[in-house]
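Researcher: Quick test of sequence recovery. Tokens follow.
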């Protein structure tokens, strides 16, 4: 039951006006506040008492130079109402957005104000999201072709190196080519991760173990005057993630730390487990903690203005060509995908510390993938190789043939089926691009099983779009660009996993 209140009309009006969503103010011809309701006072961060009876210039020194005042002035003199959207800056420097309606009244002007800050922020965020979606579509569109080109570059550099031998005078230059292609591949991965197109395969991974494995690689990235420390407590604590996501996070943070220390310093990476309060030392079953991952440097640090923008996509303070400004945007994207948070503490001259908190996963560690053996494995099995890109096809064919495999190649699923069905020859393994003109790689694998029930498959993927293709559970995917070694290892692994 709603309470029944009896008030005289004037009191009822006052109570109601004070509780309106809109601020109401009446300003006299001499700029004195004649009436201010509670909401308007709140909008101005003053009390009604502070405002009524004083002039605007007295209450807000400097207000007579603002666009808002000019609008009020126009209405005062012209007696024509106006509407405007205005950003009001408080003495603290904070700002809020208001929709204002200014109307002439017999005693001066009346201003109705509506706080639209939240709505405006949401609109701006939506615009930003739409912009990033467009970027994502663009990226997804070119990445497939781009990764094909990279496979050909990296692959052929590999092949020439093998042919000439490591001691050949040109091997240095070849390595440069391979490295440049790898950098381009890393950038592609960043863009893809950003566009959320990367298909991730999550399992329980221990960040402590990932950092341990990355350490030697990271050391090579750092110049001699930069030290690297790894502090680990609760090494085995796991999070539910794709291993490469964690590697990507750490790599980005360490490279940033390096760039912030042009005259040397120390990078300290840390991992520890935080348990829910009051649970003692060991996490009881079913009560997960937080895995805290940190990367600290002793570098230049950041001003609050820079700090406020570092997670924006394409924000960089680095020279043209040195930074794309995607690093931290990707890091934050990935951390959020994993249900975590990222914080930064920094001050000019005092270095920076990035802290990432991820929910602990109590699921047991999934069996780790076998490490790549050093020699390239070989075999004699029959491989059906399908890829629409001639360069990729010829590189993969050369690699597989040199290692002893019998290779039949085709540019489409339909052509592949024509060349093997009814030919009487066996097919042990299908190596196919997922995205093909016509029938896709996954459909081809299913069709092929009609004729060769034991056939295994390795799917090549160039744009992380396999999320859109129906892949059988546990399908083996090899991301483009890949090296000769990676192809041979994967092919052997999958063939060995066949039931005897
Ligand atoms: N550890 C750090 N110390 C000082 N400034 C940093 C640090 N990490 C990031 N920044 C600042 O944040 C900006 C954005 O970083 P981000 O990693 O997103 O892009 P980038 O490093 O400039 O380019 P990219 O990572 O794409 O090559 C940097 O340009 C730099 O100004
Ligand atoms: Mg960076």
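Model:
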């Amino acid at each position: 039951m709603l309470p029944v209140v009896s008030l005289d009309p004037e009191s009822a009006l006052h109570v109601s006006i004070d509780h309106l969503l809109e601020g109401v103010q009446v300003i006299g011809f001499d700029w004195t506040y004649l009436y201010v309701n509670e909401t308007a006072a709140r909008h101005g961060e003053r009390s009604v008492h502070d405002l009524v009876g004083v002039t605007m210039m007295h209450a807000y020194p400097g207000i007579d130079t603002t666009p808002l005042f000019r609008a009020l002035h126009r209405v005062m003199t012209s007696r024509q109402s106006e509407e405007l959207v205005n950003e009001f800056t408080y003495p603290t420097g904070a700002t809020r957005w208001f929709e204002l309606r200014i109307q002439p009244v017999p005693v001066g002007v009346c201003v109705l104000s509506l706080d639209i800050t939240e709505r405006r922020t949401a609109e701006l965020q939506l615009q930003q999201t739409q912009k990033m979606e467009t970027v994502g579509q663009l990226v997804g569109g070119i990445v497939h072709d781009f990764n094909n080109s990279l496979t050909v570059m990296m692959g052929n550099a590999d092949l020439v190196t093998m042919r000439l031998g490591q001691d050949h005078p040109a091997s240095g230059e070849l390595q440069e080519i391979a490295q440049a292609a790898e950098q381009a591949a890393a950038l592609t991965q960043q863009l893809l991760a950003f566009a959320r197109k990367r298909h991730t395969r999550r399992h329980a991974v221990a960040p402590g173990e990932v950092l341990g494995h990355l350490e030697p690689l990271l050391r090579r990235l750092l110049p001699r005057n930069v030290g690297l420390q790894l502090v680990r407590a609760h090494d085995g604590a796991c999070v539910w993630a794709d291993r490469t996501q964690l590697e990507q996070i750490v790599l980005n943070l360490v490279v940033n730390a390096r760039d912030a220390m042009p005259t040397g310093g120390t990078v300290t990476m840390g991992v520890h487990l935080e348990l829910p309060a009051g649970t003692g030392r060991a996490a009881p079953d079913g009560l997960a903690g937080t895995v805290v991952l940190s990367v600290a440097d002793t570098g230049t640090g950041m001003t609050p203005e820079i700090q406020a923008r570092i997670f924006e996509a394409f924000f960089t303070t680095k020279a043209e060509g040195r930074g794309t400004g995607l690093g931290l945007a990707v890091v934050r994207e990935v951390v959020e995908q994993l249900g975590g948070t990222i914080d930064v503490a920094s001050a000019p001259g005092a270095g920076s510390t990035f802290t990432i908190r991820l929910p602990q996963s109590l699921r047991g560690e999934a069996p780790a993938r076998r490490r790549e053996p050093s020699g390239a494995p070989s075999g004699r099995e029959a491989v059906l190789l399908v890829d629409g890109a001639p360069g990729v096809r010829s590189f993969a064919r050369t690699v597989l043939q040199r290692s002893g495999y019998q290779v039949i190649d085709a540019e489409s699923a339909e052509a592949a089926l024509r060349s093997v069905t009814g030919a009487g020859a066996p097919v042990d393994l299908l190596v196919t691009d997922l995205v093909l003109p016509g029938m896709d790689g996954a459909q081809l694998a299913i069709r092929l099983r009609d004729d060769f029930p034991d056939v295994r498959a390795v799917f090549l993927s160039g744009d992380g779009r396999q999320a859109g293709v129906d892949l059988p559970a546990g399908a083996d995917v090899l991301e483009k660009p890949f090296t000769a070694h990676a192809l041979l290892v994967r092919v052997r692994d999958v063939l060995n996993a066949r039931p005897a």
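The mean pLDDT is 85.
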